[in-house]
Write a structure and sequence with these properties.
This protein has two domains: 240 residues, Alpha-Beta Complex (Quinone Oxidoreductase, Chain A, domain 1); 156 residues, 3-Layer(aba) Sandwich (Rossmann fold). 30% of the residues lie in helices and 22% in strands. It contains 13 helices and 17 strands. α9 links the parallel β14 and β15. α3 crosses α5. The N and C termini lie close together (10 Å).
């Protein structure tokens, strides 16, 4: 059984090791013992490591005193969690039987791990209540029962039926895109189609106590500029924008993969005029002419992890063209570039956010606001239906993207190799890293 750990001081330093099977302690009441089955690795995992202390992601699965030195030191080493699926191996909860498949936030290991769960809302949702996890944002403590066929459990492609292969594929895409939650919330709640009829939610959620007016959220007279437009959240956001009635005046997709972005926009058949722009061409005459032709009153920059200075380049384009200088500018920060950041870069990034007036987006904060409104069952029902539709049409939204399956934790073909690729920015836009853990 393998475990992957990452240095809290330098996230580029990481290690994997085998852990000998040990006698299992008696499982506590209201608990399940799980083993991860299918995990994804994305740029989000780098963020979990980068901000693990501040936002308590390290708390989800602390390193054990039973790990070999030095990896048993929780002040220096931690386990970066990942989204995906796990199976229940033992349970003291009557409604969660052995063999049940759960979707959620798991350790990057294939070692049996205990969770303490209480029933959540709606049905099939369960909440982790261990004391050491209570400073985690609620999104990361929510687990859901995932219906599955018996043939999915061993993940052996050569012996799977066609229906089981399709099931595995949908599971892999769901793990990789985290169920499309961030993109869905941005398009449907932060920037709702009808900002007059539906009160928009601040990108951090209402708990932040910050203003987010209907005017802030209205895209009907705006051009949307997606930075890092080929990232997973950006593609989901663009998909949901294309499927609503009230659309922005234009969509500028800034990416290093302009062919893929342009193909996706053509596939979606949206009525929104769009242009795919390379980072180096943000300030070009073509970009300025296209942007000015939209005759927008507002430019909404959604930064999904754009390369250095991309935001500044867009702002310079707007300020440098008399036809655009009247535009209101709104900047929403969603993600980070696929790389390991130094502390100096983190500090500089925070200063830049304040200087540029960026508004931070937080998936859990927005979802928590929706759930606090009381529309719990309706929200999850709508979200699930929209995600299933996205899965049906995923070839439109992410043309050319393929799931790259790895195996286990150890070696270049496992979580260990995937982390190395993430740290070095070597995961291509058309690759999706998913690992079979059993």
């Amino acid at each position: 059984m393998g475990v992957h750990v990452v240095s809290k001081l330098d996230n580029r330093q990481h290690a994997s090791f085998n852990l000998e099977a040990a006698a299992q302690s008696e499982l506590a009441e209201s608990s399940v013992r799980i083993r991860p089955l299918l995990l994804s690795l994305t740029s989000n995992n780098l963020t979990y490591a980068l901000l693990g202390e501040i936002l308590h992601w390290w708390d989800a699965y602390p390193v054990s005193a039973n790990y070999p030195a030095p990896y048993n030191d929780p002040t220096k080493w931690g386990i970066v969690p990942a989204w995906g699926y796990a199976t229940i191996e033992e349970s003291t909860i009557p409604d969660l039987a052995k063999g049940t498949l759960l979707y959620g936030f798991w350790p990057t290991s294939d070692v049996p791990t205990d969770l303490k769960l209480t029933r959540g809302s709606p049905e099939a949702h369960w909440i982790e209540i261990n004391p050491h996890r209570q400073q985690l944002m609620p999104l990361y403590n929510r687990y859901t029962i995932a219906p599955s066929s018996n043939s999915i459990a061993d993940l052996k492609l050569d012996s799977m039926s066609e229906s089981a292969r399709d099931e595995l594929d949908r599971m892999a895409w769901t793990a990789l895109f985290i169920g499309g939650v961030a993109g869905y919330l941005l398009a449907e709640y932060v920037f709702p189609a009808d900002a007059e009829a539906q009160k928009p939610i601040h990108p951090l959620g209402d708990q932040a106590g910050l203003p987010w007016s209907r005017s802030d959220a209205d895209l009907s007279s705006a051009v949307v500029v997606n930075l890092a437009a080929s990232t997973k959240t950006a593609r989901v956001f663009t998909y949901f924008l294309s499927r609503r009635q009230v659309k922005p005046l234009g969509l500028m997709q800034v990416t290093s993969s302009i062919e893929r972005a342009a193909e996706a926009d053509r596939n979606l058949g949206s009525e929104v005029p769009s242009i795919a722009v390379r980072y180096g061409d943000i300030g070009s005459t073509e970009s300025a002419e296209w942007l000015a032709a939209r005759k927008a009153e507002k430019v909404v920059i959604v930064d999904f992890g754009g390369r250095d200075n991309a935001v500044e380049d867009v702002l310079a384009l707007i300020k440098g063209d008399a036809r655009l200088q009247h535009c209101e500018v709104v900047i929403v920060q969603v993600g980070n570039e696929q790389k390991v950041y130094s502390m100096q870069e983190v500090i500089a990034g925070r200063a830049a956010m304040e200087k540029l007036g960026k508004v931070q987006f937080n998936t859990s904060g927005v979802q928590d606001t929706i759930l606090a409104s009381g529309d719990v069952e309706g929200y999850f029902k709508r979200r699930s239906a929209r995600w299933e539709k996205w899965l049906d049409e995923r070839h439109l939204s992410v043309p050319g993207m393929e799931i790259v399956f790895g195996k286990g934790v150890l070696s270049a073909g496992g979580i260990e190799g995937g982390w190395e690729k993430l740290c070095n920015g070597q995961v291509a836009p058309e690759e999706g890293l998913v690992y079979k853990m059993q």
